[in-house]
Amino acid sequence: MSNVAYATFGARKEQLETRVASLDDGYLRIATTIGKLKPKLKMAGREHQVFDAVIFCTFGWNKSEDKVTNTYLADMTDLDDSDVAAALNVLAERRIINLRKVGGFKLVSVNVNIDEWQLNKTKKTPPKMLGETTQQVGQKKVSSWVKPPDTLNSLTLDNIKHTLTHDVGMQGDEKLTPRQAGTNPRATGTNPRSAMPAFDRERLKNTWNCKAETFGLPKIRSVTTTTENGLKRLWKSYLKQCKELGTTPKDIDSFLNGYIEFGYKPTQWACGSNPDGKRFGIDTALRQEKIDQILGESV
Fold this sequence. Notes:
5% strand; 299 residues; three-stranded antiparallel beta sheet
């Protein structure tokens, strides 16, 4: 019986080489001020990567500037060519690096004038909307043409009554506008769009009750809301007629009482000669068709 030697065929462990940074492999010199200021830069990650690559291409080889391409820096940073180009433009705009194009290459260098560095990101202005003017063509500043108002002395206690709101900047009652003098149609209540001025309710009530007693119509104890709305229609129609004819309106009490006493003439129907025998009061006299009829006949 032969002896069999058993051997272990385990996987051989590879000896992994550990990479250790050492000055023996080379080093680069960088100014202390740049080393202190660099961590304060507010930049995107790709911009930091490209900036480190520019430092290595220049200071790492004891050169003030280097001729590179986007592809070369992309290989160093594992970025796309387009990202490298965009990062270089941002760094140049913020005056962190110097960038100029020579043929198919780019000359890059670190801007050693660190006072010119823009540490923070610049705010981008929003693009112009469609249709907005992007150039101020033909526009002029008119601030120097207009004399600023004297706000210190224009509203003092001495002349506060002589502002443009009160008398158009001029003193004297003869120079007031009708609105400022209170003689315009709205102020006097002669504008059809203005509210009806106050009237003598007792006089109106007595005038109607006298007419009602003569014709046997219903009397009133007060001016109700319905009656007042009818009086407003009457007054508005009267002012409109005066405006069309170019005549001056009478005072409201003379007109309202004159309309009831002399203008309105009750019909036999209103006096009770109807199938129901009903007698109609002041609201019938103030219906719009009756108002138009009486005002039209009085012309």
